Amino acid sequence: MIRRTAHRIRTAGFLVLLCGCVAAAAHQVGDLRGTGDLGIVIERASGRVVVVDTTARSALGRIGGLGDLSHASAVYSRDGRYAYVFGRDGGLSKLDLLALRIERRIVQAGNSIGGAISQDGSLVAVSNYEPGGVRIFDAATLDPVADIPAGIDDRRSKVVGLVDAPGRRFVFTLYEAGEIWVADVDGSGRVQLEKFPRVGDQPYDALITPDGRHYIAGLFGEDGLALLDLWHPDEGVRRILPGYGRGEAPLPVYKMPHLEGWAVAGERLFVPAVGRHEVLVLDRRTWAERGRVPMPGQPIFVVARPDGREVWVNFALPNNDRVEVVDTETGAVTRSLRPGRGVLHMEFTPRGEQVWISVRDENRVDVYDTRSHEKLAEVPAEQPSGIFFSARAHRIGL
Amino acid sequence: MIRRTAHRIRTAGFLVLLCGCVAAAAHQVGDLRGTGDLGIVIERASGRVVVVDTTARSALGRIGGLGDLSHASAVYSRDGRYAYVFGRDGGLSKLDLLALRIERRIVQAGNSIGGAISQDGSLVAVSNYEPGGVRIFDAATLDPVADIPAGIDDRRSKVVGLVDAPGRRFVFTLYEAGEIWVADVDGSGRVQLEKFPRVGDQPYDALITPDGRHYIAGLFGEDGLALLDLWHPDEGVRRILPGYGRGEAPLPVYKMPHLEGWAVAGERLFVPAVGRHEVLVLDRRTWAERGRVPMPGQPIFVVARPDGREVWVNFALPNNDRVEVVDTETGAVTRSLRPGRGVLHMEFTPRGEQVWISVRDENRVDVYDTRSHEKLAEVPAEQPSGIFFSARAHRIGL
Questions:
Q1: A31 lies in a domain?
Q2: Given A220, A251, A282, which residue is the final one in a domain?
Q3: Predicted TM-score (pTM) of this structure
Q4: Which of A291, A377, B119, B289 has the most crowded CB, counting CB atoms within 10 A?
Q5: Residue B353 lies in a domain
Q6: pLDDT for the residue numbered B30
Q7: What is the mean pLDDT of residues A372-394?
Q8: Is residue A11 part of a domain?
Q9: DSSP 3-state percent helix, strand, coil across chain B (nearest 5)
Q10: Do the Cβ atoms of B352 and A37 come within 8 Å?
């Protein structure tokens, strides 16, 4: 008995010691870490994301089981801990980047194409192709909050170009119906809709400027872009850049450029031309074209370095192995990089000292120093596509 | 023996179970949390900061022992976990906002006035009055990296207006010498200095635009402002706004306005006038004055709501109980608030849905909804002054 008692005491002591160690480890060096330097890289073919750390320039781990991630995108909770990943199959997954696991996951539609998080971080909205519309969920629980079927009369429309705007609003575009809708969601989940009809033929994508003021939809069925000034919705939607689109394209359009890639640099916007080997330069005040920069391929993303001094450009096939760096002041190409086949996406760290580039066919993400334009690191990833850093939590319209 | 073996097995099982529980608890609900919604409020009289959570709109705890925090400011590590607090007594404290404790603290000079963190997050710089100069520290360890005595010949100058600029550069101004210096720090801590002499009489403060391009110093000894375009340092420093300063002031100047409070809203800058009951409106392209907004007192901080639609203004004595909200498009005051005596600072959440306002004499920080202009919450704080949210980690020049 004595021996057993002694054994119990030793066991208890060991337990206390163990508890203390585990708790201390958790508190001091274990799990505590900031989230401002985290991000995710989409592994499109395998339904996973790689969680990355931009300070160490390395992977922290992977989270799988996310369904069809072709064309997937992500937004962040306001604390930067959770990424909401929008899959092509209607899946909405809330990922905990600290615990490296799925916090919650729902399949909320049959076919979807991106999402947004409200300014206050309380609502996540998803834009759906099938059934066409927008569904809104509680960001904490993913419980449904509101359902907005999109279309005219009984004819449903696919929804594209969904973004957040200041004040628990979401703005989106109806592909078949050719309308822009602004949804204002109150604290009880009631939705007030403002509809802008006949904005153009087959709007296929849209963007909002970083101040959340100007919403611009690209048109697949005709040239020009549809502009809505959210400070003056009463003025309606007007047409800008009448020559912009496929009508002017001298080449077959391999891929319509992403509008969300428009780069704002000072008073100018840098925009991928459609079907032309050019980047267009626009005046931010008047939206008029100010110039064109010749490129070695059809641009897909034109992304501004956060200080606005450079834009970095990637390309459609057959030039998707290249990245061109353009000086925004002179319009000159200052550097031509060849990261490898399948350059799909570029993401700058928020203050702009690094850019991360997905090189799909090399199964690699390359990290470049944006001052020297030299490669700093390589992070292995299986057929990487979109890269999304947690600093997006703090931006309007991302 | 059989029983003991069984006991051991049970114990081992319990240990495994316990380990699992402790680890799971720590991992699930314990210490893990994001840092994107954290911030600190300076309690100037007591040498403490309150760590706050902008999602819960409440205090998480306090960290004390930080010395003289009058005129204290802070910057953030790139992961958002650590705040570097610059005290008036030369103290530089690295605070761990997750563990709620001082990670490291040094007293690096006799009298200092703010600091900055390099674009890559690796270096923290402090501007000192006594001895006049800038000292640069490793952001991880606070070990000294470089010392830059400031002055002409043997005459030391106080350093003001220290900011970071893209590419491990720091820009600062010498008060007595009337010079602007740009320090470029390489990976080994070697400093290359570029000096701009005779920028004006007694430059007392400075700011850098959010893109890190234009550095502007205010002058105490004469009117006008000194502008350096960091994209074109070869063009030197030029004078802008020749009427700006005390010379034009119709009233005694109770407090020189903070330059770092300049608000950028679209193509315009909103700037506190010196000694006048006005906010000046400047053209961002030409720096020319475009208008003046009448105010009920001498403005101190003029801060833009992140979407640029409003600027919020606080005032010097005897009007330091007020906050005025100005519509940037019309120039009209749309709301007049009276939070209480001693409104010292205002900080917007990064996407702009809330603004936090220190009300010193009420021992309170007020949280306002920026859409309705209604108060959402009050957070107790002892004589609060500066408020700094962790999203500053992601901005140039803050």
A1: no
A2: A251
A3: 0.92
A4: B119
A5: yes
A6: 53
A7: 97
A8: no
A9: 10, 50, 40
A10: no
